[in-house]
């Protein structure tokens, strides 16, 4: 709008927002036509620098120490799974709301994610990455996890491009497109089978892609790399 000759006041009235916010938007609008959130970009770059340093110090390319988890799917059914090099947890199905207690006892403990990773890499030789859901970042959850493993804290919000498992959910979505479960029980069986039959090559490629993602974010000063993934 501003490039079309409209004044800040005109834009403010049309969008029904304050002129101060309009000025900030115009200032942060980049050449690609996207808003640049410099604060968020710095956090993303800082996180990637921390991850890169850890990986360079503690691991080799063929043994990634980045552990990734994410929730997704229907509103009434939450699925949870974690992947790493040579490691895949069982798919956890939760009906209803997940709070801190549920996350610790019914997901973290039930999945044996910490034991599996420790068995593969050794204690405190890997990083557990979560999204920003409240049960994941509550004081009780972080205290529990930090006593048992390295935790990426905090993880910048709205950064699916730094979470390869998001791509895995998309792969699963594609596999589920032609499935027509008749009820919840059948749906759970189908999605569990899809998770269990994912190829190790698929998982490995996604995990290893974290190296390139980290370098790209650092190179782009924290900007989004969604166009690459």
Automatic annotation (TrEMBL):
Residues 4-43 form the Insertion element IS150 protein InsJ-like helix-turn-helix domain. Residues 69-186 form the Tc1-like transposase DDE domain. This is Transposable element-related.
């Amino acid at each position: 709008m501003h490039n079309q000759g409209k004044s800040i006041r005109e834009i403010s009235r049309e969008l029904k927002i304050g002129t101060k916010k309009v000025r900030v938007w115009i200032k942060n609008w980049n050449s690609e036509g996207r808003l640049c959130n410099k604060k968020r970009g710095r956090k993303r770059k800082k996180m990637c620098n921390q991850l890169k340093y850890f990986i360079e110090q503690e691991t080799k390319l063929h043994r990634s120490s980045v552990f990734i988890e994410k929730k997704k799917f229907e509103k009434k059914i939450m699925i949870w799974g974690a992947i790493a090099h040579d490691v895949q947890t069982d798919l956890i199905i939760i009906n209803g709301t997940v709070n801190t207690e549920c996350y610790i006892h019914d997901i973290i403990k039930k999945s044996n994610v910490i034991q599996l990773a420790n068995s593969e890499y050794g204690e405190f030789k890997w990083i557990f990455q979560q999204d920003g859901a409240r049960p994941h970042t509550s004081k009780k959850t972080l205290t529990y996890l930090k006593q048992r493993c390295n935790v990426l804290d905090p993880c910048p919000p709205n950064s699916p491009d730094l979470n390869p498992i998001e791509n895995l959910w998309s792969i699963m979505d594609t596999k589920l497109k032609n499935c027509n479960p008749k009820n919840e029980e059948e749906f759970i069986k189908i999605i569990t089978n899809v998770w269990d039959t994912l190829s190790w090559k698929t998982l490995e490629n996604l995990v290893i892609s974290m190296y390139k993602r980290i370098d790209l974010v650092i190179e782009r000063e924290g900007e989004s790399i969604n166009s690459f993934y």
